[in-house]
UniProtKB/TrEMBL annotation:
<feature type="transmembrane region" description="Helical">
    <location>
        <begin position="70"/>
        <end position="87"/>
    </location>
</feature>
<dbReference type="GO" id="GO:0098719">
    <property type="term" value="P:sodium ion import across plasma membrane"/>
</dbReference>
<feature type="transmembrane region" description="Helical">
    <location>
        <begin position="208"/>
        <end position="229"/>
    </location>
</feature>
<keyword id="KW-0050">Antiport</keyword>
<feature type="transmembrane region" description="Helical">
    <location>
        <begin position="258"/>
        <end position="275"/>
    </location>
</feature>
<keyword id="KW-0472">Membrane</keyword>
<keyword id="KW-0915">Sodium</keyword>
<dbReference type="GO" id="GO:0005886">
    <property type="term" value="C:plasma membrane"/>
</dbReference>
<feature type="transmembrane region" description="Helical">
    <location>
        <begin position="389"/>
        <end position="409"/>
    </location>
</feature>
<feature type="transmembrane region" description="Helical">
    <location>
        <begin position="127"/>
        <end position="150"/>
    </location>
</feature>
<feature type="transmembrane region" description="Helical">
    <location>
        <begin position="296"/>
        <end position="313"/>
    </location>
</feature>
<keyword id="KW-1003">Cell membrane</keyword>
<feature type="domain" description="Cation/H+ exchanger transmembrane">
    <location>
        <begin position="13"/>
        <end position="414"/>
    </location>
</feature>
<feature type="transmembrane region" description="Helical">
    <location>
        <begin position="31"/>
        <end position="50"/>
    </location>
</feature>
<feature type="transmembrane region" description="Helical">
    <location>
        <begin position="6"/>
        <end position="24"/>
    </location>
</feature>
<keyword id="KW-0406">Ion transport</keyword>
<keyword id="KW-0812">Transmembrane</keyword>
Length: 439
């Protein structure tokens, strides 16, 4: 199938599944679309003996178009830039230290906790993995997925500061997490004895600082260019932002720096929330509407692809036992990765009640973890069995995260009473004039 035909098929599925979800399922968009795609995949797999041609076609299609390449080379830059545009820069500044610590220290703690626990617990289900592969799984599953997280919190009325913490951490720990994954992958590929400590530090530093610097440079240039352009010339403003994203992604790949971090920083430069009036009006309203549309459309396609990935998963009973263990371990690792930094920061900083529980449960995993796991197939010296185990565990953790955690986040917010106070007051303020008029 040609690339254009594949894109057409995904768009048609997105439109059709969205209609079904809106009319009948009425679930959050990302969850509804993924479940419908997952249902279609299960129908194709179970009905293989009847629809053999359909099964072969679907399998060939999902293997022909590498999910990891589609996400990292096409979709991720657009989604991260669009997500960063929606953040309130002022609130983000107020929460900068919790975000920074959780996105770095929290991810590293979670990576090692998950890796160590997997290493010692998998033998109980008859699976044995070398420690470096367990650590690799810990690295790819530890960063929360900004695409899934942002899609979920948009539907809630959580307080702005907590929203900034959750969204900001997910955007930045994604970039950090990918760098940690690449660092551990380099160790696993070359061997510990062939990789020097300075080489690891250099890889990590260049990726992170290089990505931040590139994003700041392009964001600054793009913002000033948008300020020069009259807001009536919407098409030019949209083309400028598109050029920033596409050009920034290509430059990041060429310079071997973190593209995800560059996209997030660029989005923060161009975003209008929490800015002065002068900078807020740098880009016209239609620029933000365009990126909102891009965000919604690509989110729909991404979660359909996640649902369809079940077609290429290897089915071994012990792999699913390992996945059950992995779900519990990942939640525990997330809890420790959040609770340790926040407990230390509480010495000098106040946090709302239940912050640790909320951040633990709202740390959704998504397409980025699946893409990183699938990219291991390209690593020449990895056994196929090892990759299959890691992919199965990753996929099951992602499904649990999006469906179970995603569907219960709003109830958790309501239970812990962390909704936006401003939104609570609105009905009361609006009610007073109505009562006066009635009198």
């Amino acid at each position: 199938m040609e690339v254009l035909d594949f894109i057409t098929l995904l768009v048609i599925m997105a439109a059709f599944f969205t209609l079904i979800n809106v009319k009948w399922l009425r679930l959050p968009s990302t969850i509804g679309l993924m479940l419908l795609a997952l249902g279609l995949s299960m129908f194709i797999i179970v009905g293989e003996w009847v629809f053999r041609t359909l099964n072969e076609l679907a399998t060939n299609l999902m293997t022909e178009y590498d999910f990891s390449k589609v996400l990292f080379q096409v979709m991720l830059s657009f989604l991260l830039f669009a997500g960063a545009l929606e953040l309130d820069l002022r609130k983000l500044g107020e929460e900068k230290w919790p975000i920074l610590v959780l996105a770095t220290v929290g991810v590293l703690i979670s990576t090692f906790v998950a890796g160590i626990a997997i290493y010692f617990l998998l033998p109980f289900v008859g699976i044995s993995l070398d420690f470096i592969y367990c650590l690799l799984f810990g690295a790819l599953i530890s960063p929360t997925d900004p695409i899934a997280v942002l899609a979920m919190i948009k539907k809630t009325t959580v307080s702005k500061n907590l929203e900034s913490q959750i969204a900001g951490e997910s955007l930045f720990n994604d970039g950090i997490g990918v760098v940690v994954f690449l660092t551990i992958l380099a160790i696993a590929t070359k061997g510990v004895e062939n990789l020097q400590v300075l080489e690891v530090i250099e890889l990590f530093t260049v990726e992170v600082l290089g990505g931040l610097a590139l994003g700041a440079l392009l964001g600054y240039l793009g913002l000033n260019l948008l300020r020069i352009i009259d807001n009536e010339h919407t098409e030019i403003e949209v083309l400028v932002t598109l050029s920033m994203v596409l050009g920034g992604a290509s430059i990041a790949e060429m310079l071997h720096v973190s593209g995800p971090l560059a996209m997030v920083v660029m989005g923060l430069f161009v975003g209008r929330k929490g800015r002065t009036k002068k900078l807020e009006d740098a880009a016209g309203e239609y620029v933000y509407k365009f990126w909102h549309l891009m965000d919604e459309a690509m989110n729909a396609i991404l979660f359909i692809l996640i649902g369809l990935q079940v077609i290429v998963i290897k089915y071994e009973t012990d792999y699913f036992y390992a996945a059950g263990i992995a779900i519990v371990i990942v939640l525990l690792a997330r809890f420790i990765g959040v609770s340790v930094p926040i407990s230390v920061m509480r010495i000098k900083r106040k946090f709302p009640p239940y912050t640790i529980r909320i951040l633990t449960w709202s740390g959704l995993r998504g397409g980025i973890s699946v893409a990183l796991a699938l990219s291991l197939y390209e690593t020449a010296n990895f056994e196929t069995r090892i990759v299959d185990i890691i992919i199965t565990m990753t996929y099951c953790v992602v499904l649990f995260s999006i469906v179970v955690q995603g569907l219960t986040i709003k109830k958790l917010f309501e239970k812990f009473n962390v909704v936006n106070n401003e939104e609570r007051k609105t009905p009361e303020i609006a009610a007073k004039p109505v009562l006066k008029k009635a009198k």
